[in-house]
Amino acid sequence: MRTSQPQTIFLKDYRVPTFLVDHVDLRFELFEEGARVHSVLSLRRNPDSGDSQGALELDGDSLKLESVALDGSDLAPGKYDHRGETLVIPGVPDAFELTVVTWIEPQNNTRLEGLYKSSGMFCTQCEAEGFRCITYFPDRPDVMARFRTRIEADRNAYPVLLSNGNDVDRGDLDDGRHFVTWEDPFPKPCYLFALVAGDLVEKRDSFTTVSGRDIDLRMYVEPRNAEKCDYALDALKRSMRWDEEVYGREYDLDIFMIVAVDDFNMGAMENKGLNIFNSSCVLASQDTATDLAFQRIEAIVAHEYFHNWSGNRVTCRDWFQLSLKEGFTVFRDSQFSSDMGSPTVKRIEDVTLLRTAQFAEDGGPMAHPVRPASYMEISNFYTLTIYEKGAEVVRMIHTLLGAELFRKGSDLYFQRHDGQAVTTDDFVTAMEDASGRDLSQFRLWYEQAGTPVLNVSDQYDEASKTYRLTIEQRIPDTPGQQGKKPQHIPFALGLLDSSGQDMPLELAGGGGEITTEKVLELTGASQTFEFNGVAERPVPSLLRHFSAPVRVVYPWTREQLMFLMSHDSDGFNRWDAGQRLAVDVIGSLVGADEQAVIEPRLAQAYRQLLCDESLDQALVAKMMQLPSEAYLIELTDSPDVQTIHRARERVLTHLATELREDLLEVYRRHSAEGAYGLSPTEVAGRSLRNTALAWLLHINDSQARDLAQAQFADADNMTDRLGALRALVNSGFVQEREQALDAFYQQFSGDPQVVEQWFSVQASSPTTGDLEQIRQLMTHPAFEWKNPNKVRSVIGAFAGANLASFHAADGSGYRFLAEQVCRLDDSNPQIAARLVSPLTRWRKFAPAYGEQMQKALEQIRDKKGLSRDVYEVVHKSLAP
Ligand code: 7MF
Ligand code: ZN
Predict the structure, then answer these.
(1) Which tens digits make up the pLDDT trace of 283-312?
(2) Ligand 1 atom 14, closest CA
(3) Which of 282, 316, 382, 388 to mutate to test the pocket of ligand 1 (most atoms within 8 A of CB)?
(4) Bridge partners of 89?
(5) 267: CA distance to ligand 1 center in Å?
(6) E strands present in 348-405
(7) Model confidence pLDDT, tens digit, residues 37-57
(8) 269 alpha carbon – ligand 1 mean position (Å)
(9) Whole-model pTM?
(10) Is 304 a catalytic residue?
């Protein structure tokens, strides 16, 4: 437990390590009452460090030190110091072997960092700083060592013993125990270390690499999950092939292992050769996983696999460089998902997350650059900014360079830095060197926080047939950063003529060929681009494909938006125009009286979408999703959540009423026939059909209720079953929804991943998720405090997806969240800190909300013995 105020760590204080570790020899003795860890480190002074005298300092956390020996001789307690968490040994030689024995208690580890037990198995999570909870070590990513790991445990209880690399030895020991020894030939930072021990079943598969090497693929799960492995293994093979084809990256070890674990703080972890997954992010079957879950699993399996190159072979110098591996790897996994399905739909999903959640983070008290300059607790910096904005930054480099030069750049990066721990700057330099482009101004994307705002205005001159587009950029102040410099922004656009066709673009003084889409490069605070030979006043299609993570402000009329919605050749901008139209219509009803008329052309536009069977149904399904409450709040200054909620509900009711016949027709048109499949067409059909059902039940349509009940009972897959359940839950049919919830639980009570869905459907619905009902859910026998997924599916869903209940006028939702954060802070500070996030932007909200949110934060601040994790978030949020 913390005793003093948490310290801030600064990038500018980075120093190379004083000691390097060439080799680590680990021996784990696993018992029910604890684990003994024997570690032998081959250490030597780093020639690049100016320090030739300094003491050896090794990180540690919650360790019981049993013994220390230097070059084989025990060190007397006076020869070292470990009163703090650090083990300090002065007067060591330039090269030596250090043997340290520690005792830890995985069975009591509720933080789920380091070595812990989950459902009877031992497992680890070391990123970012969990290895120091296992043994003393220079726990920083720029210390890379070769690991040899011997695991000893009871043979019956733990028949499977896994670590990184190849298994090189195994055998029996006394007392019914056995051991397995693993050797990882690749030097790695300790955050990539992993160990798993349990009674697991093994699913095997294989993959032949492009150069003809056979790789053993092995997946380990609890016996009850044996039938839920196929999809992840197939996704893994698709990822391996894709990385060879698109990036020229081949897998390097002979074995690749995946393990599923129920209690896990995050989604998954890329440990070398031994990826560990949260069960909910890897296990799937038609009966238990939704289409969305399948999609997520494919993306996460790919993400972790891609880390083998972007993260493991080339790793981060320090944690300020986290986006080096995460931003790049998210970019890679989203390219992969794009290639596996619909690029437009994937782009819409990524941008939705970015604009709803990352923009909010970038505008709040925790705003930080893609490469932060300081942090208190690194776990708090696994953020949407590092991941999603980081991926957008890499994507912009891809846009500026083009696919071919980008590939040249990534080849150079991997070749130049293989086996090294490097910086985001090294990445950009490789891109520059391979392409010959100057990215010096572009680097500001890594250094400046905040979402740039682009103010766009235009002017058409009939006589000279010229069209002028003026773009001003402004980057808002963020904590610790004022008066920012203009950034280098790729801005893709097209111009539509009155028939909806793309016009040829002839940039004045621009040279180059004439195309119908151009990427303008913004570099100044204000720039005007002149297009010649523009036959008529065009409708501009701005920031196509969302070519940069910015806000675009332009005075669109509703006519223009409807026009773009049905004509833009860029699918993304068609969707975006629809969103902007809906935002405008909903916005005009916020705070208006109940009699206010709702723009009739909105329903017309949606009807057109629904009826046109020639359209890509996956895109139609996306266009039918109204902007979320969270997004509407994000777009509003001083939002009043309840009035926004009511305005959105009114529009939904209006649309469902107006479009009733069309929705029923769409439902019938996409009724399931034939075997269940995961092709994009089938997925789109189910999505559209379930949206239609949801809209109809929103107006308590009795015919739709019957359809929902039938679909719920007869579904042969989880997408349709859950779709029907969610629609019923969000309806006013009280009895029917209770019946369905009970039946669903009865059927799936044995499957934790489905029970999590069941919790989350209730917690995120205003009908079943008021505070009283949430407290009730938390007394349900299936709710477990020690399982992060359960906490997220009830408390997280309530605070993040049930905004009308969470933002109850009396502030009860905020006080409740504060209470839960305080409770969790003692057992799992990482999860507690993440739960605080819905309160952090209290200053943005209308005062009636904001003041009560502030009080809730103060309630947390005043808790005794607050973890560093929660301390950082709460204090930064309350800072003046
Ligand atoms: C896809 O990044 C995208 C992001 C850290 C844990 C997984 O591989 C990871 C780990 C957090 C948040 C998001 C993701 C991960 C983590 C993630 C997973 C799949 N290195 Br924290
Ligand atoms: Zn990652």
Answers:
(1) 999 999 999 999 999 999 999 999 999 999
(2) 267
(3) 382
(4) 56
(5) 6
(6) 374-375
(7) 999 999 999 999 988 899 999
(8) 7
(9) 0.99
(10) yes
